[in-house]
């Protein structure tokens, strides 16, 4: 049963994965409006998402108990691509103690005083945790690439600027490989929004007062650079989808479908890790048995051997 489910999830996400080495042309290769023939309706989608959320909760509990592997999910998208909503929905069922979300905005002076991966390394998940990067180290080859003046603020020595993008792709791949080799799985989701759907979402943010806070004038300025971003995304996908840390391009024009896809991608990785609750050895089992005997011996006479036990003082205080 579980294997069948794992198989279905693997097949569902396979078309979204960018094969390592593939040269991606975003606007030609991936359709933002796509949804699969197996899940074509929102209602059906909601049910599948609920199943996915329950599955994630179960695996996350085991990941935490095993305390050996960590998972890092990097979410990238253009403005209004649906990152926040995706995180809110996909993680809605898991224990908040086991998940850490980090958002990245314009770097601070202190951050700019360090190497460019420093601030991302500081927010990596611990073993047993799921870390989510809402924007990630990939901004360093996206917004920084589209706006080279941001690079000037990074105070790089002149020799470090040679073939900089080529080098950054390699450094990011190496860093992710290092993390993977040390037990931290890295998965990367690009929420692929269409030009027209972004326009609609921006208009909604302007027209609906409760959404005004989500909109900034900079958003339309960035939108004017749409083509440059598509190019930067295409190159990023072509150069940094690796066997150890693949990219997934998720069609994002339908929010509900993007959420199912993201949940499935995370579930797939957790199923692959297959974390187990630790089992105890004979020594520990003997200790458990001894502790049990001691606790049983403390049962009040009226408890008749039942293990539930209410201290009389607390019960009395409750009544007072
Ligand atoms: P938001 O996600 O709407 O809060 O916006 C965050 C802003 O920070 C976006 O405009 C990003 O492009 C920008 N940002 C994120 N990372 C970097 C970076 N490394 N350098 C410059 N700007 C960044
Ligand atoms: Mg924004």
Written account of the structure:
It is a single chain. The protein has helices spanning 2-13, 26-29, 42-66, 83-90, 109-112, 118-121, 143-146, 149-152, 164-181, 195-207, 217-223, 226-240, 255-273, 282-297, 312-319; strands at residues 70-77, 99-103, 130-134, 184-192, 247-251. The protein is α/β, with parallel strands linked by helices and 320 residues long. The chain folds into two domains: 2-273, P-loop containing nucleotide triphosphate hydrolases (Rossmann fold), CATH 3.40.50; 283-319, no CATH class. A five-stranded parallel β-sheet has the order 2-3-1-4-5, with helices on both faces. Helix 1 crosses helix 13 (255-273). The radius of gyration is 24 Å and the shape is globular. It starts with a helix and ends with a helix. 30% of the residues are buried. Bound molecules: adenosine monophosphate (AMP) and magnesium ion. Adenosine monophosphate binds next to helix 7. Residues 298-320 are annotated as: Disordered.
Give a quick summary of the entry:
The protein has 320 residues and is an alpha/beta fold.
Which terms would index this structure?
single chain, 320 residues, alpha/beta, 2 domains, 5-stranded parallel beta sheet, 5 strands, binds adenosine monophosphate, PPK2-related
């Amino acid at each position: 049963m579980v294997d069948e489910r794992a198989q279905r999830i693997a097949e569902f996400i396979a078309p979204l994965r960018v094969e390592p080495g593939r040269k991606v042309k975003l606007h030609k290769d991936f359709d933002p409006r796509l949804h699969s023939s197996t899940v074509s309706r929102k209602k059906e989608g909601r049910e599948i998402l609920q199943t996915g959320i329950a599955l994630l909760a179960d695996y996350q509990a085991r990941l935490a108990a095993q305390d050996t592997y960590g998972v890092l999910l990097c979410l990238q998208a253009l403005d209004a691509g649906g990152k926040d909503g995706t995180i809110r929905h996909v993680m809605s069922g898991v224990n908040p103690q086991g998940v850490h979300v980090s958002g990245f905005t314009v770097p601070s002076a202190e951050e700019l005083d360090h190497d460019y991966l420093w601030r991302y390394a500081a927010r990596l998940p611990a073993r047993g945790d799921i870390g989510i990067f809402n924007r990630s180290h990939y901004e360093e080859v996206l917004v920084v690439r589209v706006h080279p003046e941001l690079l000037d603020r990074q105070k790089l020595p002149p020799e470090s600027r040679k073939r900089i993008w080529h080098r950054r792709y390699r450094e990011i791949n190496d860093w992710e490989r290092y993390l993977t080799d040390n037990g931290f799985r890295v998965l990367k989701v690009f929420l692929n929004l269409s030009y027209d759907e972004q326009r609609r979402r921006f208009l909604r943010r302007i027209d609906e007062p409760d959404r005004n806070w989500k909109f900034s004038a900079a958003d339309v300025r960035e939108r004017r650079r749409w083509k440059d971003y598509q190019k930067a995304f295409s190159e990023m996908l072509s150069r940094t989808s690796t066997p150890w840390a693949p990219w997934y391009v998720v069609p994002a024009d339908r929010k509900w479908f993007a959420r199912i896809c993201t949940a499935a991608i995370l579930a797939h990785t957790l199923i692959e890790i297959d974390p187990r609750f630790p089992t105890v050895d004979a020594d520990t089992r003997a200790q458990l048995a001894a502790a049990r005997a001691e606790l049983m011996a403390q049962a009040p006479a009226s408890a008749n051997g039942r293990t539930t036990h209410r201290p009389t003082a607390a019960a009395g205080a409750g009544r007072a």
